[in-house]
Amino acid sequence: MPVPSIFNSHDDSRVDPRNLLSSIGEVVYSWDIQSDALSWGPNAADVLGTLPEAAMTRGLGFAGLVEPGSGRSRYDAIFSSGGHDEGEGVIYRTRYAAELGGRSMWIEDAGRWFAGTDGRPACARGVLRLERQVRPEELMVQTGELGDRSVLLERLASSLSEHLPAERPLVVLVAAIDELARLNDDFGHEATDEIIGAVQERLRSVTRRRDHLVRYSGNRFAILLTGCPPDQVEAAARRFTRAVAQTAIETTRGIALVRLRVGAACAPALSTHAGTLLSAAENALSGARASACDEAVIARRQESREPGDSRAGFDVRALAALNERRVELALQPIVKARTREVAFHEALLRVAIGKDGAFFATAELIPMLERRGLVRLFDHRVLELALDLLAREPAMTLSINVSPRSLADPEWLDAFLACTCGAPSVAERLIVEITETATIDNPARVAKLLGQVKSRGARIAIDDFGAGHTSLRHLRAFPIDVLKIDGTFTQNLRRSTDDRFYVRTLIDLARHLDVETVAEWVDDEMQASMLADWGVTYLQGHLIGKAELQRPAQDRQGKFAAR
């Protein structure tokens, strides 16, 4: 059914994406998992309130706000999601309670993680949605009236302030009974409580007098080891795991064999902050559970992903890939929402590492190119590939995605103007695509640049739209033809009425601006049907088709996008 118009008022603030996001309690984020750097959308303070700097800038810092036992952390959700990233990410979703500036709130956390070259999660894009305030009895039920994280953090902070000035290291071990759900199914709740009590007594029996043992949730124990050097952590952890596993535990329902999984974090080697240390140990525990590791998993400080020698090595390999023409485009179809006819192909940048068929992981490649100042060289190459393809295929319309750095580079604009000067038919079949964040630093300058691009007959698209960076006033100033709605919102349509409202509003906004829309991350028929009914122009995602390193059939009429 048609969406009622919300543009009858002259008050732009009513339909400003940032204000709308804040009104439904949502904020987007990006997380570089390996470096732990966390960044938020521009309305983070509106939604989350005032949080410690560590919680706003580090993934582990934010995880420290999660109430124990309330649900899987984002780290747990990502590393237990399974799946293989083929370039478009793997879905994760979780729900937990977190302490936000004095408010304990239920939060839905969903998004996609993207793999690095080793196939493991390297970064994630997602959205947090505040649901409602937590009632005290809810956490008491889930943690057996034991889990008081704040008390544990106070004790940990007190231990840090006491021992670190005296140069005594401190280790946080977090241990949990393996396969507790299976034990509960086999023996029942009462016997499981007996098992937990027996485990606690066995742990206490091998805890040194100067250390602390705290059971801070139903199946989770924290052990603070004072003066334990890093090279002795594994031996200390084995002392506890052996104490638990050495003999079976007798219960009223039978005999149970029990094992512990252990994660550890060391101060000051990893951090001197209580919340960060505890979260790091908990995430290490998740790693131990996921790998069924009998040894303790120790959280390590994430070194720079670009140490000096590898920076130079990356530069050499990237430039070699350019010189050896190992830059390709993988094409993903985009279809008309109503008819499912192919209308676009987005061509995703692929850079071969060598001649063996392996490629740099896009999740690592693009940020690395931007940090190293090499992205404009690759954008130049993409422009060349695009124009060459357009010249050879007069029926094609091609869109290329230009990074903010390249857009600000006079050389890229000069190259674009020079290449399209004598080929107006080529320029008219070209779409230049920029990210929403590229519009915020100097909107007037960006609008002028885009105007020059459009003067050649090309069209303009804004990618990943909806995070709240761009106001309606700025959108009106840009010569926009297409808005691509951020997939972090379209992927939750089945579950979230708030996201349904927001996406419909974005579609109405595009209709008001007289521009077309592309919905990203469309994975199922329900999403596709909803979006088509609301008037979205095009669909893109796993449901439609994956990116492939080949050209479409020559007789297919279409548009093509390059990133």
Give a concise summary.
By secondary structure, the chain is an alpha/beta fold.
Q: What is the CATH third-level topology name of the largest domain?
A: TIM Barrel
Q: In what range is the share of β-strand residues?
A: 15-25%
Mean of all residue-level pLDDT scores:
83
Percent helix range: 25-40%
| Count of separate structural domains | 3
Q: Which shape, going by the Cα principal axes?
A: elongated
The CATH architecture classification of the largest domain is Alpha-Beta Barrel
Helix vs. strand class: alpha/beta
Main sheet? 9 strands, mixed, barrel
CATH structural class of the largest domain:
Alpha Beta
Q: What is the H level of CATH, i.e. the homologous superfamily of the largest domain?
A: EAL domain
Give the CA-CA distance, first to last residue: 34 Å
Rg is: 27 Å
Number of helices: 22
Number of DSSP strands?
21
Describe the structure.
By secondary structure, this protein is of the alpha/beta class. The chain has 3 domains: 12-141, 2-Layer Sandwich (Beta-Lactamase); 146-298, Reverse transcriptase/Diguanylate cyclase domain (Alpha-Beta Plaits, 2-Layer Sandwich), CATH 3.30.70; 324-562, EAL domain (TIM Barrel, Alpha-Beta Barrel). The protein is 39% helix and 25% strand. A 9-stranded mixed β-barrel has the order 13-14-21-15-16-17-18-19-20, surrounded by 5 helices. Helix 11 links the parallel strand 11 and strand 12 (297-298). Helix 8 packs across helix 9, helix 9 crosses helix 10 (233-245) and helix 14 packs parallel to helix 16. It starts with 16 loop residues before the first helix and ends with a strand.
